[in-house]
Amino acid sequence: MTPFELPGMLIDGEWPPTGEEGTTEVRAPYDGSVVARVPAAGPHDVNRAVAAARTALDRDDFPRADRIRVLEQTAAALNTRLAHFARAIACEAAKPIATARGEARRAVETFAFSAAEARRLAGEVVPMDASVAGAGKLGFTLRVPVGVVAAISPFNFPLNLVAHKVAPAIAAGCPVVLKPASQTPVSALLLAELLDGLGVPPGWLNVVTGSGSVVGDALVTHDDVAYVTFTGSAPVGWAIAGKAPRKKVRLELGSNSPLIVETDGDWTRAAEKTRTAGFAHAGQSCISTQRIYVHEDVADEFTAALVHGVESLRLGDPLDEHTEVSALISKDDTARVVEWIEEAVTAGAKVLCGGDVTAEGLLRPAVVEDAPPTVHLQRDEVFGPVVTLTRYRSFEEALALANDARYGLQAGVFTSDLGKALRAARTLRFGGVMINEVPTARVDQQPYGGVRDSGNTREGPAYAIREMTETRLVSLEP
């Protein structure tokens, strides 16, 4: 893989090529080749970036019309550079190139939706004279920026999840300090370079690259950061919230997403969709389909169709157009997933396909049947190419099994019965309930987020922008 040439990290409109701790190599998960060299920032770099953002907020020199222009031009520029950004995603994250192009296209929409929402962000009229005390007064509200935003993004969607933090912040008028995942900073830096070239004033967008323990901790605990947006694992996310009790901390965390397949549902379509939903980007998605509950009356047919589909998945180099599944983000994660499969087998589960590691170090996509509810594959977020299959007898049993989790991001149900669909919508304790769709489905304008250990926010430009602003009441009396 040819390395990417990057200018450095972005602080106050400048691109320092090294950080407080020098530089570090970004290596491809697939073959270990060097993708890029990036600065290794430290606490002093974070202080400079936050100070620049705070100064930008005080200058107030990025008016809404200019922000809308930048957002719209970024969407257009991304659209003409899809191949370049897709290659960066594929190299740094081992995301198959066809899937990487899909992520880049989604980032275009995220910026476009943010621009549209920035145009209509407004307060409201308050009927002050509805009470005696308010007689003669005119009241209205303004939506004002919450302050400096600290954005911490994950490795699995290194472009679009950065877009979901940066674009709404720009729309809301909040300066940003972004810390991309240390494994995948290339796409974020390329995006920052694009935004910088389109006229974002100094300090309104800063990018500091480095480890979570150094850069992330310094960022979330900084006194001048008002808002923290984090996407990642539940333990890390809730630890961040504990470190910043007086800030607005918004978390989009993991899940072990369930899929229920009823006898009256289109189980053939469910199996076809799961072939992708459980294994795209090697299962490394917060809403990757993981726990499948299938009615015993259609379980044999569904299982046969799913296993056939999973066995046909193409493994290989992420830059190969035919590859559907490539490497996990690290060898340690590959070893962990293999251990979880072995634990389930020891507890009585059966591996119907996959679960072994190829000579190239790729984990073959696995379907595991009858895993006990106490093992990691059922209780925790696998973040790997594995789904579990469990048979059930009644719809109420399936709903209870799906709810038996500490996570609550998205769930899917296949049924043609409207009553069951509404029952699922009322009963399933998740941020999203997808009817006749896999839980892995997401459009970028939807309110996306979870409950319980899956987080405390809703992303999607309209919802993120509202959260990044505060309501200010203005009362006028002649």
Task: Give a brief description.
By secondary structure, the protein is of the alpha/beta class. The protein is built from 15 helices and 17 strands. This is Aldehyde dehydrogenase family protein.
Structural overview:
The protein has 478 residues and is α/β, with parallel strands linked by helices. It folds into two domains: 23-253 and 455-476, Aldehyde Dehydrogenase, Chain A, domain 1 (3-Layer(aba) Sandwich); 258-453, 3-Layer(aba) Sandwich (Aldehyde Dehydrogenase, Chain A, domain 2), CATH 3.40.309.10. The chain has 15 helices and 17 strands. It has helices spanning 43-59, 64-80, 82-93, 97-120, 160-172, 186-197, 212-220, 234-243, 267-277, 299-311, 331-346, 376-379, 395-403, 418-427, 461-467; strands at residues 23-27, 34-39, 125-126, 138-145, 148-152, 176-179, 205-207, 225-231, 248-252, 258-261, 291-295, 350-353, 366-369, 386-392, 410-414, 432-435, 469-476. It has a seven-stranded mixed beta sheet, with helices on both faces. A five-stranded parallel beta sheet has the order 7-6-5-8-9, with helices on both faces. Strands 3-4-17 form a three-stranded antiparallel beta sheet. Strand 6, helix 6 (186-197) and strand 7 form a beta-alpha-beta unit. The longest helix has 24 residues, at 97-120. The protein is globular, with a radius of gyration of 23 Å. It starts with 22 loop residues before the first strand and ends with a strand. 54% of the residues are buried. The model has no long low-confidence stretch (mean pLDDT 97).
